[in-house]
Amino acid sequence: MDMEICWHGRGGQGVVTASEILAETVVGEDKYVKAFPEFGPERMGAPIRAFTRISEQPIRIHTQIYEPDVVVVLDGTLIGKVDVAKGLKKGGIIIANYAGTPEELKKVLGTDAECHTVNATKISMEEIGRPVANTAMLGALIKYRPVVSYEALEFQIVHKFTGKLNEKAIKANLAALNRAFREVI
């Protein structure tokens, strides 16, 4: 099972952290992974991308991902402004933080790719109190591409945030993960 994921978001939204959490979880499940961001002199709020490459075999490719199997969009305001579907492989999927339906997303993107939507910003505001949708989008991702187990992802979130966030904030991130996993369509 090889998979390449392209993450789209804005600086400061946790795009790189989401990619890292997934990568660290994959390593814990004895798979190979490469995860890295792409940004230059951008500042907070500028569009950025991150990439995650997952394989059962050692990974020898060290370039950005040009033809992803999965596109994850953390910031719905990028839709229509950034070509998030660019290079998506046939049979690939798009999972977006988007308040509309998957059919509406397909129309806006002008794609016939499989699309899934979840209002991760709303979930994040209600659970975490801030519009940081990274943990919510991880939940949405593994619902449709279970590259790691839900339990392993929960464990990794707790591990990653222990010492950085208080217990209440960690529980809020886990609640966002769970809601997005359940609410993504």
Written description of the protein model:
- It is a single chain.
- The protein has 185 residues and is α/β, with parallel strands linked by helices.
- Helices cover 38% and strands 21% of the residues.
- The chain is built from six helices and six strands; from the N terminus they run βαββββαβαααα.
- It has helices at 15-28, 102-109, 120-127, 134-144, 150-161, 167-183; strands spanning 3-10, 32-38, 47-55, 70-73, 93-97, 114-118.
- α3 runs antiparallel to α6 and α4 (134-144) runs parallel beside α6.
Summarize the structure.
This protein has six helices and six strands; from the N terminus they run βαββββαβαααα. With 185 residues, the protein is α/β, with parallel strands linked by helices.
Helix/strand layout:
Blueprint: E1 3-10, H1 15-28, E2 32-38, E3 47-55, E4 70-73, E5 93-97, H2 102-109, E6 114-118, H3 120-127, H4 134-144, H5 150-161, H6 167-183
Parallel strand pairs: 1-4, 4-5, 5-6
Antiparallel strand pairs: 1-3, 2-3
